[in-house]
Amino acid sequence: MPERQAPWPQQLHRLTFGFPVPGGLRTPQGWEVTWRGCAVMGILNVTPDSFSDGGRHLGAAALTQARALRDAGALIIDVGGESTRPGAEPVPAEVELDRVRPVLRALVGEGVLLSVDTRKPEVARAALEAGAHLVNDVSGLRDPQMVQVCAGAGAPACVMHMQGEPRTMQDAPHYADVVAEVHGFLRAQAERVRGAGVPAVLLDPGLGFGKTLEHNLALLRALPDLTAGEWPVLVGASRKGLVGRLADVPDPAQRDPGSVALHLHAARQGAALVRVHAVAEHVQALRVQAALESPPGAAPLQSPA
Ligand code: HH2
Predict the structure, then answer these.
(1) Is 301 contained in some domain?
(2) Whose CA is nearest to atom 9 of ligand 1?
(3) Is the pLDDT of residue 187 over 80?
């Protein structure tokens, strides 16, 4: 077992909740990572145009930010080189890879899991070769080549639901039954992907990806149905439009308090991971919630080393 795994149990202990959640991943490097409760995936967008932090973490600033997210308690850092905000134009694979690969290479061995946030099999393959531990695909591994890449590398994958594609997905999203369609897609896709040899699968309802506010709220209310299944569930609402609409906060950079509230709800409903910009704030809130939910007499949570 690699030495660099050493810091994790302490981090995970800080995030352990009082009820079991099927959180667990086996990475291409052979690491077994399991946790109980809700862990935090920190967002690192190395893009010029992401909706809340575009242009802020380029070059050396990306590494500084990644280390800050790790030190604040992120279990995973999700490195993305293409914005998928509503209206975003696709980025060529070479451009995306030039953005993410140096960051992944620099961070390998620094005591944090690394995921690559990409829809492109060629980017995922190169990122895994550069040391990424898992693949986060907002298009839900619909591309058979993406399934092959993950299976071939032995890499876990996050299957997210998206209706349409980022450029047009918010034009007129429509569902007969949003919960049945999204959950049905996720479960069927997870079975398919696992059957093709991908070792572990996370499911993500894809808040804001081809969904109105009402669709997002329906999916949030239905989270217990999704988390009751065998797949760990990831929820990502950080600074998104739904938080802005619910709390009347137009500026995405000001939406962290509402994001924390929403993600605490997700954690209480059994989410195994939340994908967030403000890692320190979420870790603190999750620790307090975990402490409040601990049975009487339970050992107090350890402080970080
Ligand atoms: N949301 C975004 C990007 N990737 N991946 C998962 N699994 N779930 C999400 O909800 C999700 C995601 C969009 O947020 P962000 O990365 O902050 O912005 P941008 O796409 O503009 O870079």
Answers:
(1) no
(2) 236
(3) yes
Residue 123 domain flag: yes
DSSP, res 260: H
Q: What is the pLDDT of residue 293?
A: 84
What average pLDDT does the segment 127-150 reach? 96
Query: Which tokens belong to 240?
Result: 């998104």
CA of 188: how far to CAs of 109, 182, 224, 231, in Å?
Answer: 34, 10, 18, 12
Active site residue 240: yes
Domain that holds residue 222: 37-292
Return the CATH number at 42: 3.20.20.20
- Residue 299 domain-assigned (yes or no): no
Segment 28-49, tens digit of pLDDT = 776 667 777 889 999 999 999 8
Give the distance (Å) from ligand 1 centre to CA of residue 84: 6
Give the count of domains, the chain.
Answer: 1
HSE at residue 162, side-chain half, CA atoms within 13 A, is 23
High-pLDDT (> 90) share of the chain, %? 68
Asked if the structure places residue 41 within a domain, the reply is yes
